[in-house]
C-alpha cells in the first residue's frame, strides 16, 4: 500500500509539471492619456509581456460615447460613470486580448 501511495503521489506531481491548465483570455484596455505618449504605451506593453502575458490580438481604436456608455453600463448608477464615459471616449485607446494561465486573476 505504501508503494502505491508513493507511486500515486509521484505520478500526480509529474502530471502537474507536464499537464498545464489551458490558457485563459482577458481584455486589456490602455486608456487615452497613456496612448498619447508612445513611450509610456510601449513601456506598459513591455511590462505586460514581462509578466508572462501573450498578445493574441491588438487594436488601436477610438471608443464612441455610445460605445463607452454601453461598455461601462454596469457602473451606470455610480458617481464616476459620466466621468469614465467621457474620459474613455476622449481619445485613442489600445485594446488587447491577452492570454496566460490564470489570466483573469493575474490581470486584476
UniProtKB/TrEMBL annotation:
Keywords tagged on the record: ATP-binding, Kinase, Nucleotide-binding, Transferase
The family this protein is said to belong to: Belongs to the NDK family.
TM spans (from-to): none
Tagged with keyword Electron transport: no
Superkingdom, taxonomy of origin: Eukaryota
Domain Nucleoside diphosphate kinase-like, residue spans: 23-108
One Pfam family linked to the record: NDK
Protein name as it appears in the record: Nucleoside diphosphate kinase-like domain-containing protein
Organism the protein comes from: Medioppia subpectinata
Gene Ontology terms, MF aspect: ATP binding; kinase activity
